[in-house]
Amino acid sequence: MLIIGNGRMITRDPKNPFFEDGAVVVDGGAIVKVGTCGEMKKAYPHAEFLDAHGGVIMPAFINVHEHIYSAFARGLSIKGYDPHGFLDILDGMWWTIDRNLTLEETRLSAMATYIDSVKNGVTTVFDHHASFGQIRDSLFKIEEAARETGVRTCLCYEVSDRDGKDKAREAVEENAAFIRHALADDTDMIAGMMGMHAQFTISDETMELAAVNKPEEVGYHIHVAEGIEDLHHCLKHYGKRIADRLMDFNILGRKTLLAHCIYVNSHEMDLIRDTDTMVVHNPESNMGNACGCPPTMEIVHRGILTGLGTDGYTHDMTESYKVANVLHKHHLCDPNAGWGEVPKMLFEGNAEIAGRYFKRPLGVLREGAAADVIVTDYIPLTPMNQDNYNSHILFGMTGRSVVTTVANGKILMKDRVLTAVDEEKVMADCRQAAAKLAQRINSR
Fold this sequence. Notes:
The chain is built from 15 helices and 18 strands. The longest helix has 20 residues, at about 165-185. Strands 1, 2, 3, 4, 5, 15, 16, 17 and 18 form a 9-stranded mixed sheet that branches. A hairpin with a 2-residue loop joins strand 2 and strand 3 (about 30-35). By secondary structure, the chain is an alpha/beta fold. The protein has helices at about 35-45, 85-100, 105-120, 140-150, 165-185, 205-215, 230-240, 240-250, 265-275, 285-290, 295-300, 315-330, 340-355, 390-395, 425-440, and strands at about 1-10, 20-25, 30-35, 50, 55-60, 60-65, 120-130, 150-155, 190, 195-200, 220-225, 255-260, 280, 305-310, 375, 400-405, 410-415, 415-420.
């Protein structure tokens, strides 16, 4: 049994949202009790005590759209790469990387991503994977890294016809095999979805193949209208908008997660809402790829379950919080835009999305919820209470404010030192693998 206490505590539980001097008691993978530090120490005198030293105790972060396969892209220079649009970025950078990834490089990419997630207080990751160089067993290699680092994860493989029908079929089979594996697992630490790249790289035949091989317990994870080219392709080849094509193949639904949704119209938003389909916003990626600003504020206001992701651009959810906050203010010329919507996405939407795939409640400190807790070294300069703690997170914290990360009741990082893995050894292996990948890509 472990008590994490002696800090200001944000619970995200409406019944007890904030404690000036709080503590959370965890046992195994679940939270046993929350309350004041004095009460918890008195009630559980023999429990191990983890001292927050006056910092902020809060639920660990959830990232509902990641790309592990992009881990080795940082600083990568590809010969001849000179993008003039979104499709150039996809083919010149991301598809080039994933076509060259080996299984071991996929595993190490996952180790690097999960390690950085832990260091930024993220303990639940929804990943959307591609490694067309080696498809089979790639999700299982990522799972190995998730188990080793202690991160809870929901995985899928990016089905696409861009490298031919055989690889599309192999991608569908990889999804199906991992979904069955995850459904049979009772740890509540892994889950699976049927991944799809985007409708413009998926034929009707492959859509049908994915549907036949998808267990009914899970949904799809797919990029939607990330670039205007996706919409133009759907209109030209199918005479309909993207959400309508997905609806025709029964892809929309409460277990399906749509990433981006930049070029969706009012009709599509209604369709997404009426099917209880989930959406995830990735602000930095959209800006970095010059794809445009999605109508995220309207999507949220229409009652669509919306979360916040990083798209592999970063592993720091507070960074995405900050960028989404200013993006929509700038785009709408409205200083109030995003003020309530973005934290709702990050702290409520992500938890609800995760709740559709994991059994224990996530993103909240209350009895019975998952024992996923972080401690930051942030000590506020100004008064902090239940009415303004989001403002303190937005303007006072970064991911590296996190000093301690606990997932499923296990201490993964304490005082900024990883406890589950040998970070120095893993990162040395990653550096070697990244260098070999870069050399292989540029020797084509």
